[in-house]
Amino acid sequence: DAKTTQPTSMDCAEGRAANLPCNHSTISGNEYVYWYRQIHSQGPQYIIHGLKNNETNEMASLIITEDRKSSTLILPHATLRDTAVYYCIVRVWNSGGGADGLTFGKGTHLIIQP
Amino acid sequence: DTGVSQNPRHKITKRGQNVTFRCDPISEHNRLYWYRQTLGQGPEFLTYFQNEAQLEKSRLLSDRFSAERPKGSFSTLEIQRTEQGDSAMYLCASSLVSGTSTDTQYFGPGTRLTVL
Fold first, then answer.
1. Is residue B9's pLDDT more than 70?
2. Residue A43's closest chain B neighbor by CA?
3. Which of A5, A110, A114, B32 is the most exposed place for a label (fewest CB within 10 A)?
4. What is the pLDDT of residues A82-110, one digit of tens each?
5. Interface of A with B (CB under 8 A)
6. Are B60 and B79 in contact (CB under 8 A)?
């Protein structure tokens, strides 16, 4: 799986949009971009994933650049409960089935300020 | 609650003892994964099952670690002769692999192991 690079930490004011960047310059054509977050002492929580099109769900939006070498996770109206470590992960998937587990880096510690 | 459940949530043991953790996946999920997470690090993949078959176990940290999923539903992770370095959070995740899905994994709350 391709390696990802994320900032170690970020701050965002409550009520503003939080934009978390991720670089994955070696991503290959059959690798998806996944985002998870982990609130202190809890298991990781799935947020969103995508291949090449932008995606949106009730939690967030995922913007993937046209060359797929980077992406941004957007939390549109951050709240204090969004304070967590956010992980960007790329993972191979094809119709024959993916293999192995997710490869987590150290993620971005997002702190929402009141 | 239909999420992934793990028991116990906390386990304290003495060095040299054996411990076993249980994971109950989301109903009808056919894949089950185990991860370990140490302080300040992201989760580290250990092993996974598709139904009852263990498809990857080379990532298990040593031969003291073993996992089973005998009936393709719940799974157990056992650590024999525990060492202080085994102290960590042990996480379980499950997913549904089918013709149209992309194996999105959903995690349980974890079991925190402390080895004294």
1. yes
2. B109
3. A114
4. 999 999 999 887 555 556 789 999 999 99
5. 32, 34, 36, 41-46, 49, 85, 87, 93, 95, 97-107
6. no
